[in-house]
Amino acid sequence: MKEQMLSEVKNVFIENYGVEPLLIFSPGRINIIGEHTDYNDGFVFPAAVDKGIAAAIQKSDAQYSSAHALDMDGHIEFQLDQLKPQAQGSWENYVLGVVAEIQNRNKVIGNFNIVFKGDIPSGAGMSSSAALENSVVFGLNELFNLGLTKHEMILISQKAEHNYVGVKCGIMDQYASMFGKKDHALLLDCRTVESKPYKIDFKDHQLMLINTNVKHSLSDSAYNDRRSACESIAELLGIKALRDATIIDLETIKDKVTPENYQKALFVIEENNRAIMASKAIEDGDLETLGNLIYGSHNGLSKQYKVSCEELDFLVEQAKLNKQVLGARMMGGGFGGCTINLIEKTAANTFAETVSKAYEKAFGKSCSVYFIALSEGTHIVK
Ligand code: GLA
Hints:
Elements: H1 2-17, E1 22-31, E2 43-44, E3 46-59, E4 65-69, E5 74-78, H2 92-104, E6 112-118, H3 128-143, H4 150-165, H5 172-179, E7 184-189, E8 194-199, E9 205-211, H6 219-237, H7 247-251, H8 259-284, H9 287-304, H10 310-320, E10 325-330, E11 338-344, H11 348-363, E12 368-370, E13 379-381
Parallel strand pairs: 4-6
Antiparallel strand pairs: 1-3, 1-13, 2-7, 3-6, 4-5, 7-8, 9-11, 9-12, 10-11
Residues 35-36, 38-39, 127, 169-170, 172-173, 332-333 line the site of alpha-D-galactopyranose (GLA).
């Protein structure tokens, strides 16, 4: 799929612009555990995958720049000095936002053309947006010798998301997509923005994703609301971020916050602890503990943080019925997208079939199953 996409964007680019482009692959990500902890300065445990964005990009002599989204058959032309956010939810914002944020850092770029295509369904909770942002900043950095470090590039991608897309996201997605390491997951400390790679080899178990095919539509404002709830509780506690709080600390202000916000903060503290415990479990090869932490994460995301939905909960309940699934939970921002399942290898295909039938029966629509490989972060393809 990756090779096919790369040759497709390359061919379209050459047909349209008559020059050889720079080719970039920028991956999406999974997250083993540690959800909604990143913007609380906490720990997350993501990995880049073999699905993502293939981009062909090159400088242009024209008086304008252009971006072409092959999947959506979308094309825009724009002036570098006249950028502004487009309608909410449009793909243009990911490209324009990155260009604007590069220029906000007083970096000078010239006109360019980009053609891209992806194989991550949008709204799957696998960060197709971060993959796209990273492909743009990575390509422009290379073409115009901007001298940006990877850390600077992901901050630009994140700012694009804040200011153009309107989601006050943390740093997990952009980091995982940029810094991914083949066969590894990264225990990322979102305060220092440094990570420790963990070799992922679950022996006779593997990870499997199931997409509800429900797109998280209402989620942007719900996401930002949760972020500000967390920040206001941290402020009440007199700390920089919830990462610095214990459950005992939280008790001291219990009567000063709504029961709903108390549960949300409690979730963040617990989820942060689960991410750390999960890294220990992986180190020890203790998959049973890892699985239980993953189930615990879903329970918190659904009941305390309230970012799940009926379809996600259903898939996790299906997983619980099968003893060969050690853990399952919703992944990413929530309100739709995928579950991540830790399952015995020999059981994966049968489970995929059973769960697909049950899902179809319950909701009258189909879910999609993905098997993924953990892969390199954003890179140039020669
Ligand atoms: C989205 C955001 C991330 C992170 C997750 C939840 O993917 O972009 O920064 O907050 O949700 O863990």
